[in-house]
Amino acid sequence: MALTLTVNGHTRTLAIEDDTPLLWVIRDELGLKGTKFGCGAGLCGACTVHLDGAPVRSCSTPVSMAAGRSVTTIEGITPAEGLHPLQQAWVDHGVPQCGYCQSGQIMTAAHLLAYNASPGDDEIVAAMSGNLCRCGTYSKIIAAVKSVAAKHQQGEARDDA
Amino acid sequence: MTLSRRDFLRVSAAGSGSLVLALSFSGCSGIQTGYREEDDRWVADAWLEITLDNTIYFTLARVEMGQGTYTGLTTLIAEELDVEPSVIRPKFAPVAPEYRNPLYKLQLTGGSTSLATSWEPLRRAGASARLMLVAAAAEVWQIDPASCRTDNGRVLHPDGRELNYGQLAKLAAAGKAPENPELKPREQWKYIGRERGRLDARAKATGTAQYGIDVELPGMVYAVVTRPPRYGASVAGFDDSAVRAMPGVLDVFAIERGIAVVADKYWRARKAQAQLVVEWNTEEALAVSGDAVMEHYHRAADDDPGEEERREGDFGAGVRSADRVIEASYEQPFLAHATLEPMNATAWYRGGRMEIWAPTQAPDLARIAVARVTDLSPDEVAVNTTFLGGGFGRRLTQDYVEEVAAVAARIRKPVKLIWSREEDTRHDVYRPAMLHRMKATLKDGGVTGWQHQVVGPQILDWYVRNAAPAQYPWAPKFLYDTLGKVGLMAEGIATPKDISAIEGAVDYPYRVDNLDIRHTHTDAGVPISWWRSVGYSHNGFAVETFMDELASELGRDPFQFRRELIRHEPRHLAVLERAAAMADWDSPPAPGRARGIALFRSFGTYVAQVVEAGIEGGDIRVYRVSCAVDCGEVVNPDVVRDQIEGGIIFGLTAALYGEITFENGAVVQSNFHDYPLLRITALPEIRVDIMASSDTPTGVGEPGVPPVIPALGNALFALTGIRQRKLPLVARA
């Protein structure tokens, strides 16, 4: 059966069983490998993408749920030139170790900053609690998210002045 | 670390005229097993290639699994080559003797050895290349090489002219490699020891780093494998009629390790697999349940005092004259690796050759694994290594490569095998469960004797089947099993002596007169392997918890007690004192909190940690970890802190949650709900201080793990007065 969804701004029509997890459609049908498979049960967050702007676990989201909706992946937030502010912060802080969970971490953080531009530590920790990192990069994740939030605040302060 | 082998450099101009430096270990030379890509852009046995368009390729012989070799080893060669590390393009090494780890004589990444074994050779390779480039420039300019300088990839003439390395590559390649290039004194280092970013951070932050699971080949199909639920069971028969009726299914067949289902898409393979009906032959299957393994160990310990591994003084005489004898047993469970990237591999069998793409810690063992299950010889197998989404020792075992090779040999199309998380948890090769029986003699307020009986299996028993043939790659395949057996019998000669069970026990560092360290070798039949920090992970808990018990029995402060017994070991003492100072040990912690301390050396690196913990809402809460580490000279301080901090989190995960259990031979746990990893919500404040040192660098990937487990247990004892002798720790013992 054919279904249509928009991924990173491109509308795609696919013939695929509608119970196929969105993850495998993104990775194998559309060739976007930045979104990772970790657990298949929504427990680790490695597969996090945005569905109409909200973070979802694509491993546990049937593609039919994304029909007619807009999906954003790690590739979708990467600008044509340069990096997304969070990606830049990830590089500046040297966050990734093995790096496998980091696409999901960044997608979760991007959603946090989209609705709360200057979160406190507790809000960052709460927002990131669904994303596992086996290498233990958590403290750098918090520092990187904070640095982007702080830059935003400085920007706002400048705008006010 | 000083390598006893004499290294030598070979220089050649590659087809394109680029400068290629190949560095060989004389101990391995003459063994011709190196696979060479047909594509001449890639020079299989080169460490460093400088092309005419000034691209610098560096072949990374140790895989990148998060531990930072991609950045650390590149920094070493960059320092002496005198070029910004970020300019160099690392690429993952194919299988070739030059890339073997000289300590293991195998091309594997593990044991926190990458930096230590690369420290001299890579810097020397970089220095040689730089001297050859300088000599080439001096020839062009007809001046004395000594009057030339280099700076970030260029040779500079005293009058200001310059030539970049690419321009000089062809001429330099015609030159002779200096025998013994002088290395920069540390005052002149530009890159080593500086806080710098990770060279792979950008690719990993944009999702463009290629892991094994991301490999894509034309016309690729997908395989899943149904494995026996109990280790040792085999396929008695299967009904695949319903499977074959499912959409996209291409084939269903038995392989050595189970039943493979191949389909055009991954999800179709998974759905079809659910229709498979398999009858298992369980005659030789594992049958353990509950506490059976530990009971087996206790019986073995009663029956056999074990092999003596270290003896000083006379422990028995000490017992007879002691004021008191203290005894304790510690029980530690099987642990899974739980890399976030599940096991996977891709294979393509064509033209009588097999090409493998795999996130593997041991590419030459991957070749052996393929040869074992196909009609190919290792020379007919190429292995492409990708980034690894975590390793921790799991990817030293090549079971997933065996599976994909067996499937590819039949399917004859590019095929990717992906394990589910449940399969990854239930078909792991585990950190062995271990039993430790400890006994100490006390007299006149001090410790006079220490006895440690380590009870459990040895990892090499499970690993040698593949490792031994890899060391003798010319051996015909029918000898593989024999080599495995010989490898075990000739332990220490043909294969390294297996110290996996006793490391961290035999090197007990405290000053005690009578020492009796022994190993009762017994195996419960559960497949096991190396797991981040290996034997140190369980011996650390036993040694440092028992030390804490002795301090408590003697009414001594746990820090001062250790301090007095370690005065003869300055590096131990220094990290111990630093960690105590960092944690403000002498001031009382906040109400409801307590501190525990542990000191442990592993992989040549000294680590002391103080954990501050409490119990909140019925759960253990770790508030703070203060850690001092001495790993010799530091190449990248940021990577060192990351690795130690990551090790602490890895250790806390084991201490708080880690336990694989069996029910009638089958693993009970399956996914992150019942085999949890520490989440960001449980993250303590972690502070890591690195001691200044000019000693040869030692590994940092693993040494952060062992001390944090006993340090947390000791903190809980200080908090509750209840000693926990079994892991994982619980909020109420």
Structural overview:
- The complex is a heterodimer of chains A (161) and B (733).
- Chain A has 161 residues and is an alpha+beta fold.
- Chain A has 2 domains: 2-77, Roll (Ubiquitin-like (UB roll)); 85-160, DNA polymerase, domain 1.
- Helices cover 40% and strands 14% of the residues of chain A.
- The longest helix of chain A has 23 residues, at 138-160.
- The termini of chain A are far apart.
- The mean pLDDT of chain A is 95.
- Chain B has 18 helices and 28 strands.
- Chain B is globular.
- Chains A and B meet through helix 1, helix 3, helix 4, helix 5 and helix 6 of A and helix 4, helix 6 and helix 17 of B.
Q: Approximately how much beta-strand content do the residues of chain B carry?
A: 15-25%
Low-confidence stretches of chain B: 1-10, 23-45
Sequence of secondary-structure elements of chain A? EEHEEEHHHHH
Q: So, the CATH homologous superfamily of the largest domain in chain B?
A: Aldehyde oxidase/xanthine dehydrogenase, molybdopterin binding domain
Mean pLDDT of chain B: 90
In total, the number of domains of chain B comes to: 3
For the secondary structure, the number of strands of chain A is 5
Total domain units of chain A: 2
The CATH architecture of the largest domain in chain B: 2-Layer Sandwich
Q: Please identify which CATH superfamily of the largest domain in chain A we are dealing with.
A: Beta-grasp domain
Number of distinct helices of chain B: 18
| Count of DSSP strands of chain B | 28
Shape of chain B: globular
CATH class of the largest domain in chain A: Alpha Beta
What topology, given as strand order, has the largest sheet of chain A?
2-1-5-3-4
How far is the first residue's CA from the last residue's CA of chain A? 56 Å
GO molecular function (chain B): oxidoreductase activity
Keywords (chain B): Signal
Organism (chain B): Marinobacter profundi
Protein name (chain B): Isoquinoline 1-oxidoreductase
